[in-house]
Amino acid sequence: MRKIPNHELNRKTLPEFKEAFKTPFTLVLDSVRSAYNVGSVFRTSDAFLIEKIYLCGISARPPHKEIRKTALGASDTVTWEHIEGVLTVIQSLKKEGYQIVAIEQAEGSIELQDFEIQTDQKYALVFGHEVMGVSQEVMNLVDACIEIPQWGTKHSLNISVSVGVVLWDLVKKYRSC
Q: Mapped to the 3 state alphabet, what secondary structure does the chain carry?
């Protein structure tokens, strides 16, 4: 088996990325404090051609050396916006027709593998603070909640890992419809 060198990976140029069809998922980061986590979210969002990232509350934002270190340039490709108030973002996205989906452990949550994607629907996926999770104020406004099943003692994943797991599953479902 031959490893494929970087120059053969058919990577998009910045203009090609900006013009490419985006997966109709927008991410909302609800006070993600680690700039390394934010950078990783940018990198994963680039990989899956995600529409946009909203950085809310205390979430770090570019330009930031820790974001740059983990994003590897993805903060230049993925569209993003900082809006302090996460509730403002949620309410605005609802008015634009997005289904608001929290990624959280909550009563009535849907396990990730059981969440069904509608190809005519836009989704805003809300990920929360590393310790506190998605705030209850946001949970009061969501249309659905996805939970990543876990069987160990921690029942906790790093946010950057959660973003990767959720986007892989949802993008795969979306692209197979």
A: CCCCCHHHCCCCCHHHHHHCCCEEEEEEEECCCCHHHHHHHHHHHHHCCEEEEEEECCCCCCCCHHHHHHHCCHHHHCCEEECCCHHHHHHHHHHCCEEEEEECCCCCCEEHHHCCCCCCCEEEEEEEECCCECCHHHHCCCCEEEECCCCCCCCCCCHHHHHHHHHHHHHHHHHHC
